[in-house]
Specification:
Layout (H helix, E strand, L loop, with lengths): L24 H24 L10 H13 L19 H10 L5 H25 L7 H14 L12 H19 L6 H13 L3 H14 L3 H25 L6 H6 L1 H8 L3 H14 L1 H19 L4 H20 L10 H18 L5 H38 L1 H11 L4 E3 L3 H4 L6 E3 L6 H8 L5 H10 L4 E4 L13 E7 L9 E6 L5 H11 L8 E4 L3
Parallel strand pairs: 1-2, 1-3
Antiparallel strand pairs: 3-5, 4-5, 4-6
Helix pairs in contact: 1-4, 1-5, 1-16, 2-3, 4-6, 4-15, 5-16, 6-7, 6-8, 6-14, 6-15, 7-8, 7-9, 8-9, 8-14, 11-12, 12-13, 13-14, 13-15, 13-16, 14-15
Length: 537
Amino acid sequence: MTIDTFATADARTGSGSRPWPALSHRTVVALSVWGVLFAAELIVSLYLAGGRLVFTLDDGYIHLAVADQILAGGYGVNAGEVSSPSSSIIWPYLIALTEALHLGPWGPLLIGAAAAAATLVTIVRLLESSGLFDGERAWFTNAIALLMIFIVSAVALPMTGLEHSLHVWATVTTFAGLVEAARGRSPSRLQIAALVLLPLIRFEGAALACAALAGLVLLRQRRAAALAAGLIAVALLAYGARMHALGLPLLPSSVLLKARIAEAAYEHTSALGAIVDNLILSLINPYGQRLLLLAMAVAVTAWWLRSDRRALVVAGAVLAAIGGHVAFGQYDWFHRYEVYVIALGAVTWLWLIAQLKPQLDARVAHALKVPLLLLLGYASWPYASAAWVSPMASRNISQQQYQMGRFVHEFYPHPVAVNDLGLVAYRNPNYVLDLWGLGSEPVRKAKLAGRYGPDEMAALAAERGVGLVMIYDRWFTRGVPASWTKVAVLHSPFVTVAVGDVSFYRAPAADAAEVNRALAAFAPTLPPDVSLEILAP
C-alpha cells in the first residue's frame, strides 16, 4: 500500500457524524493548499490595487450600500428611497452585521473565505466517508483535492465580495444532508440550516431546496423535510411581507432585469419562450455545456446503480436541481452564476462513483481515473482561470469604478447619475440615480414596460437635482437627453468592467464652472493607465 500524502490509509470519516471528528490529514493539506493560493491572490490583488482591498466586481459594493441603509432603517441605496438591487434575500443583512463592526469590504471577504474553506472541508469529509479514496494512490487523491479547490471556485469567488461562496457552501452541505439520509441517518442541524438558507442566499437555490425536500421525504426523513420546509416558508413569507410593506416587488431588480423567465412572468409575455431560450443558451454556452456533461455523467453512473434505490433518489434530486438551472438559470458574469450547480454536479458524480467502486473490476476502476480527472479538469478550468485573472480584475475595478467613487466623494459631492452603481453609491451621503434600474424603481418599471429613453432619463435626473452623469454610452441605445452636455471621458483598461470608457455628462442642474473645476482637479490624481479626457465646453 502506498503512502497517501493527503491522508493515512484509515482516514474514513463520516461527513454527518456527531460530533465531527478532527480534521484528517487530507483535509488539513487541502485547506493549506487553498490557503496559500488564496493568500497569494489576495496579496497580489492588494498590490495591484494600490494597497486597497477592491473586489473583482463592482456589484459587491451595491450590497454594502444596501447594508448601510438597513442599519439606517431603510432599504436600498439612497436614504429615504426604497429599492431592491440586491440579488439575495439574506446577504445584505449578513453584511449589515459586518458593517456595524466597521469592517467595510473586509466583512464580505471574510464571510466568503470562511464559506470557501467550509465547503472544502465538507467535500473532503464526504468523499472520505464514501470510500472514494480508500486504497488509492497519492497522485489520484491529490488531483481530486486540487480540482475540488477550483471546481468550487474557492480561490476566486470570495474576491467578488458577493454571496456566491456562501451559496456553494449551502449547496454542498445540503447534498451532504441528502447523503446522510441515504445512509439512514437524519441530516445534522447544520445540514438542515444549509437547506433552509438555499433560497435565501440565492433565488436559484429554490430548485435544489425543493428537490432536496422531496428527496428527504423519499428517503424517509419526513420530520427533517417538514422542519426545513416550515422554516423556508416562514422566512419567505417574512421577506414577502417586508417587500410588500415597502411597496417593492417580491423579486429584486437584479432578477427582474436579468432573468428571462422573471421578466416574462411580470410582463405577462411567453414564459415558455423564455425557458426555450434558456435551454438553447445552455446548449451553446461553454458553462452550460460543462453542466450538461456533468449531468450526463451523473445520470449514466446512477443508471449503473439502478438497483440502489437510495442512490437513485439522491441522483434524481441533483438532476432535478441541474434541470432547474438549465431551464431558468444564468451563466458566467465573471464565472459566478453557475458555479454552485457545477460544484453540485461534480461532487454528486464523485459520490456516485464511490458507491459504484466496489462493483468494478480493479482494472476497469483504474482505467476510469483518467477520463474522470479530464472531465473534472474541464469543469474546473473557468474557475482556475478566474483565480489567475482576479488580481487584474481587482486592479481594473480600482481603475474605473473606484476612481468614479473617489470623484464623487472628493471632488464633486453632489447628486449624480450612473449605470454602474456600487462604488459610487457606497458610503455616499448624496443621492445616486441608477439609470440602469437596479437601484431605482422608476427606471426599472420604465425599462420593463418598454418606455425608457432620453425623456425619462432627463426627467428623473431633473427631479433628483442630478448635475453630473457618468455612464457607458453603448448601454443606452436610444441615446441620452439633448439637454446633457458631454464634458469628459474616463479611459481605463478592460478586464471585468463592462466598458472601458465612461462618459461624463453635465446636466442642466449643475454649475458648469464647478464641474469644470472638479474635472480639472481630478484628472492629475488618476493612476497610471487611466486618463480623463476633458472635452471643450
